[in-house]
Amino acid sequence: MRLSCLPLTTFKEVPAEAEVISHQLMLRAGLLRRLASGLFTWMPIGLRVLRKVEQVVREEMDRAGALELLMPAVQPAELWQETGRWDVYGNLLLRMRDRHEREFCFGPTHEEVITDIARRELKSYKQLPVNYYQIQTKFRDEIRPRFGLMRAREFLMKDAYSFHLDQASLNATYEAMAEAYARIFTRLGLGFRPVEADSGEIGGARSQEFHVLAESGEDAIAYCDADQFAANVEMAAALPPDTPRPAAGAAMERVSTPDTRSIADVAGFLGIPAEQCLKTLIVDAEDGGLIALVLRGDHELNTVKATALPGVSSPLSMASPERIQAALSCPPGFIGPVDLSVPVIADHSAAALADFACGANAVDWHLQGVNWGRDLPEPTTADLRNVVAGDPSPAGDGQLAIARGIEVGHIFQLGDKYSRSMQATVLDQAGKDVPMLMGCYGIGVSRIVAAAIEQNHDEHGIIWPEPMAPFQVILIELNPKKSAEVTAAAQAMYESLVTAGIDVLLDDRNARPGVKFADADLLGIPHRLTLGDRGLKAGAIEYRARRTGNEENIELNDVVKFLQTKVLAGAN
Ligand code: ATP
Ligand code: MG
Fold it and tell me: What are the structural domains, with CATH classification, of the chain?
C-alpha cells in the first residue's frame, strides 16, 4: 500500500474521549474511528490488523477440526423464548421488530441458533462429535461501553459450539479447544494465562478464561507460580487460616464513635488496624428475611461465593438502608454481629479474630474487645471473601499474587442446558433419543487487537507483535519532491518487496522526515527502512527495528534477503 493514496490522519494529542492507551493509540494512529457509543469503524490500516488476528484464529480452529459456518446476526425471538433467555437476558439484548411486528434480536451470542441447526442436521450419534464455529459481529448493549474495542457494543467474536454423545467426547473437544487457544495466543505473540473461571450465567461444568495480562485489565486474576494455580479472583478459594484463634485478651467495651460509618473511619478513630474490625453486610434472604455476612474490615465480599450460600437470595441483593433500619432499628454503618436478630455467617478469617471491634447496632456506637464464643455465639463460617495477595494458594504450594487481565477467550462446558430445552437429540447406540452435550468456545477477536496494544506500546506509539502488524515493513522515502532518483529507487524497492511477498507500506507522502518517522513509530510497524539521497549514493538503506530501536545500514541489493530472514524469524 502507498501512503500517498491513503488519507491517513494521525494526531499528536491524546484524544479526550479515550481513557486507556490502546484506545488512545488506535485513534491517534488513524486505525479506528468512533461512530457512536461502543460503535467503531475500522479504518483501512486498522482493518488489516483485525484480519490478521482473524486469520490466525481461523487457521488454528481449522487445525483443531472445527468447521466454519456463518449464522445470521439477526435472530428470531421464538428461539430465545424456547430457552427462556428472551426474558432473562435483559437489557444487553438489542431487540427489534420487523414490518410484520415479529420480534427479533441482534445476536449477542449464538447458542440458540446453533442448537436449532444441530437439532435439524444431527440425527445420530454416528455424526458426532461436531464442532462448528463462526467469526462474526455481535451486539451487546453493554451498560458502560468503554475502553474502545475492549468493551464495545458491536464487536467481532469467534464463537464455536461443539456437540457430543457423552461427557468423555465433550472433555476431549474442550481440551482440544484449550490447546488451540494456547496456540492462537502464543502465535499472536501475547503474554497470556488460562484461568479457572466462574461459569456465571451460562452455567455448566468446566469453564476457563484466557487472559492477556495488562495493568488496564478489568479482571483480577489470582495466580501462584509455584504450583501453577490461576483463577479469576471471583473463583479462587480463600483457605481458612491455619493458625488457631488467639485467646481473648480484652474485655468487651462500648465506645462512642460519632459519625464513623466506614471501616477506615472506625479503625482510624479507635487507633486499630482495619483487620481488627469486623464489617457486617446485610443481604436479602431467600425466605424474605435478612442475613448478616461478616468479614474482616480489610477484606472484600465475593459476590459469587455469597450467592452460593444456602438461604441467600439469588441474584445477591444488599438489603436497602430502609429495610435494615426497619428490621434492626439501626442504620447500616453501625451494624455488628453481637445480639443481632438475624442469622450470622462469618468469613473464616473474621471467625479467626479475637479482641475485635464491630458495630454496636446503635447509631454512633461501636464495640471493642469483642470475642466469639464469649460475647456472642460461635458463628457459622464460610468462605465469603475475595482472596488477596499473600493468601496461601488453594492448590497447596506457595502464595497467591494478583494480576490484572483482559479476558480474550472463554471456554465452557454447557452440558445439556440448551439441547434439553430445545430438544436437540440424537439416537444413541441403543436407538434411544438422547439430548446432545454441548461445549462453547468464544474469542474476542476485536478485543485482542486492543489487548495487544495494552501489552505492547511505548511513549512513541504501538509496537505490534509481528504476526498481527498491519504491515511487516514500512519503507520511508525521504524528501520525495527533491530527488527523482530517490523516488525511482523507493518505487523499485517497494516493488521488489511486494514481489517477495512482504507486506510493505510505502511512505511516499510529500511530508517532512520527522512527520514520517513519528507516524511510523505511532503505527507500530515492526521493521522500518529509510531511503534518502545520501544513502542511495552510498548504495545503502537504513534499517531500524521498532521494538529494540536497533539500527543498521543494509546494502540495497541485500534488503529483500535481510528482511525475509527478519520477518520469517518473527524478530521484532
Ligand atoms: P465480559 O466478562 O468481558 O463482559 P463475557 O464473559 O460476557 O465478557 P463471553 O460471553 O465469554 O463474554 O464472550 C466471549 C468473548 O467475547 C469474551 O471472552 C471477550 O473476549 C469478548 N467480548 C465479550 N464482550 C465484549 C465486548 N463488549 N466488547 C469486546 N469484546 C467482548
Ligand atoms: Mg466470558
Answer: 3-236+402-453 (3.30.930.10), 253-382 (3.90.960.10), 471-571 (3.40.50.800)
